[in-house]
Amino acid sequence: MLAAAAGVLGPQPVARAAQSPPVHRRVVTGVNASGKSAVLIDGPVPPEGTWAREGQYGSQAWLVDRIPVDLTDSRDPIAGHPLGALPPPGGAFFRVFTWEQGSGFDMHQTPTIDFLVVVSGRMELLMEEGAAKLGPGDCVVQRGTRHAWRVVGDEPCTFAAVFLPAAQTVPKE
After folding, report:
1. Between the CA atoms of 91, 117, 13 and 173, what dihedral angle is there, to the nearest 10 degrees?
2. Which residues on neighbouring strands pair with residue 112, listed in sequence order?
3. Nearest to residue 108, comparing CAs of 140, 86, 132?
4. Fewer CB near the last or first residue (10 Å), C or N of the chain?
5. How far is CA 152 from the centre of its chain?
6. Among 104, 105, 145, residue whose Cα is nearest residue 127
């Protein structure tokens, strides 16, 4: 069983990769100089948008600093932006993770609502009471509650998630 971590995660830096982990491909659309829809970015996430820990690596594919989003802003928000554990106030980020068999993340709580979908492999969402085993295509709406993750099965698990700030975490009754 995973050890329980105390408290709520605050704005903390995310560990940078000591070596180059495999990087997720990122395709970003927009409007080109002719005013037509086009693929503007097609390639790996910039190095400053990647991280690795033992048995895990991830990519921050996109970041918005406010909602609604300004679609005329053509800058790459990942380039030159420091990674953090939480999305900016009023913003959001989109991340892709690949975790090796047996890895996970200890019990924690964040002031966010997270929308997650499993792309490949299997994982388990552990709650203070109960758990849910997840496979490809399964989705989770994690609403600021204490939770942990663990990869189960004999293959890595890749999942994608969008994180949005919440007004507060869910208080423990």
Report:
1. 80
2. 165
3. 86
4. C
5. 19
6. 145
Euclidean distance between CA atoms 173 and 168, whole angstroms: 14
Radius of gyration for the chain, computed over Cα atoms and rounded to the nearest angstrom: 17
Q: Which has the closest alpha carbon to 171: 111, 126, 115, 116?
A: 111
Which positions ≥6 away from 97 have C-beta within 8 Å? 56, 57, 58, 158, 159, 160, 161
Cβ–Cβ under 8 Å, residues 38 and 29: yes
Domains and CATH numbers, the chain: 46-165 (2.60.120.10)
Q: Could you report the per-residue pLDDT of 25-49, keeping only the tens digit for each?
A: 999 999 999 999 999 999 999 988 9
pLDDT in tens, 63-95: 999 999 999 988 899 987 888 888 999 999 999
What is the rounded CA–CA span in Å between residue 78 and residue 70?
Answer: 16
